[in-house]
Amino acid sequence: LASDKRIITAAEETMKTHGYGLSSAPLMCGFQNIHKKLEKELAKFHGTEDAILFPSGYHTNVGVFQACFTDQDAIFSDQENHASIIDGIRLCRSKKYVFGHLDLEHLEEQLKSAQEYRFRCIVTEGIFSMEADILDLPKYIALAKKYNAMIYLDECHSAGVIGKTGRGCIEYWGCDPNDCHFISSTLGKAIGGGGGGYTTGR
């Protein structure tokens, strides 16, 4: 997609109408109508309610954890999760549990022992970039429902890659997007952008 002539032409035309840079932070005037339109399109793409843009995939993971979780919560992270996820969890000060790579039995043991926390969130990737392992998402959803936990699914390496229409791990397995409370991804890989990330969900 990064070399698709239609995308290149659209980018050129948009720079003519909106300029090359944003001139300010989003809080001031750096968030424009085209950004809101992109958020709506990304939510539509994933079958979710809405989306929020970030400067990069890294900022997405760091920002969401800081905004949504505190020291009253417990987060369960696959040991092969990306560094941005690890940094985000560290910054939010939640109780961190690290389970063996794709080890559902280990994860269940940890979930059983953490029922006193306000929120429990299972954090994993749809495709793990170093191993190319595809997450068996239905099993994680079942476990999350059993222990009243949320799912944070990083689709950075699966959005635009797997699924009948490229919608990632959720579409690949035929799951309901609403069963994943947070979906994060990047615009800088298969989607073909020059950077940027986003989170979406219900």
Sequence-ordered SSE layout with sheet pairings:
Layout: H1 5-18, H2 26-30, H3 33-46, E1 50-54, H4 57-68, E2 74-78, H5 83-92, E3 95-99, H6 104-112, E4 120-125, E5 127-128, E6 133-134, H7 137-146, E7 150-154, H8 169-173, E8 182-186, E9 197-201
Parallel strand pairs: 2-3, 2-4, 4-7, 7-8
Antiparallel strand pairs: 1-9, 5-6, 8-9
Helix pairs in contact: 4-5
Keywords: Transferase
Cofactor: pyridoxal 5'-phosphate
Protein name: Aminotransferase class I/classII large domain-containing protein
Largest sheet: 7 strands, mixed
Based on CA atoms alone, the radius of gyration comes out at 17 Å
Helix content: 25-40%
Number of domains: 2
- What is the count of DSSP helices, taking H or I runs of 4+ residues? 8
Distance between the termini: 28 Å
Query: Could you name the CATH class of the largest domain?
Result: Alpha Beta
Strand content: 15-25%
CATH topology of the largest domain: Aspartate Aminotransferase, domain 2
Can you list the strand order of the major beta sheet? 1-9-8-7-4-2-3
Instruction: Kindly state the number of beta strands.
Output: 9
CATH homologous superfamily assignment of the largest domain: Type I PLP-dependent aspartate aminotransferase-like (Major domain)
What gross morphology would you assign? globular
